[in-house]
UniProtKB/TrEMBL annotation:
Presence of keyword Transferase: yes
Protein name per UniProt: S-adenosyl-L-methionine-dependent methyltransferase
Record's keyword terms, sorted: Methyltransferase, Transferase
Entry's family note: Belongs to the methyltransferase superfamily.
GO molecular function: methyltransferase activity
Classification via SUPFAM superfamilies: S-adenosyl-L-methionine-dependent methyltransferases
Pfam family, one: Methyltransf_25
Record PANTHER family: EEF1A LYSINE METHYLTRANSFERASE 4, SAM-DEPENDENT METHYLTRANSFERASE SUPERFAMILY PROTEIN
GO biological process: methylation
Domain Methyltransferase: 47-147
């Protein structure tokens, strides 16, 4: 990706004309992938969707029965477009929209049961591994004890970062469309990230051995 994907100025210019765009796969496909994890959540679950851009993922989550959703992006135009998409789809606005930078989150005190991003981590990574690590550390602070982060990426090594505060699992490898049958196989990756346990939190006390 071009290096300016991490710059707010790039997105401001882009979102001035772009009203709808889905990265890598449609939101409906993404929802199919994460459905087993959504089934484990109550409808009241707190969800953070960061880097919403001009995707309609938040509307799919609301159709699924979730409304306690915070949609965050550091470009205000994305927030305006997202709020309008919800209004157009449902006739009202029930979700929360917030201008926020994932690398230095400052949100009302709360813990999220689920964090989702559709290529936002990819864009952040254009600022370097330190930027992505900062975002991961911020997200870890806002996750509930049993919360998870699900991230869609074009990269097979997106979260190979030192000091990453998460255990990482690939839950889906999605074939990218081919222009010609002879094109090489290329895949997109959907990651499940769980916070690492604090050292010693799982150890058996000596008195019980």
């Amino acid at each position: 990706m071009p290096s300016d994907y991490e710059k707010q100025s790039y997105w401001h210019t882009r979102f001035a004309s772009e009203k709808s765009f889905e990265w890598l796969i449609p939101s409906a496909t993404f929802m199919d992938i994460i459905e087993p994890h959504l089934q484990q959540l109550p409808s009241s679950a707190a969800i953070l969707h960061f880097g919403l851009g001009t995707s309609d993922l938040q509307n799919h989550l609301r159709k699924r029965g979730f409304t306690n959703i915070t949609n965050a992006d550091y470009e205000e135009l994305a927030i305006e477009h997202g709020r309008q998409r919800e209004l157009d789809a449902f006739g009202d606005v029930q979700m929360t929209y917030l201008v926020a930078d994932a690398t230095c989150l400052d949100m009302p005190e709360r813990q999220f049961d689920l964090v989702v991003d559709k290529c936002a981590a990819d864009a952040i990574s254009c600022g370097g591994s330190d930027a992505l690590l900062s975002a991961a550390q911020e997200i870890a602070k806002y996750l509930a004890p049993d919360g998870i982060w699900i991230s869609l990426s074009y990269s097979a090594s997106r979260f190979e970062l030192p000091q990453l505060p998460f255990e990482v699992q690939v839950i889906s490898r999605i074939p990218a469309p081919k222009l010609k049958p002879t094109d090489p196989d290329i895949y997109h990756y959907c990651y499940l990230l769980r916070p690492k346990r604090h050292p010693g939190s799982w150890e058996i006390p000596e008195s019980s051995l």
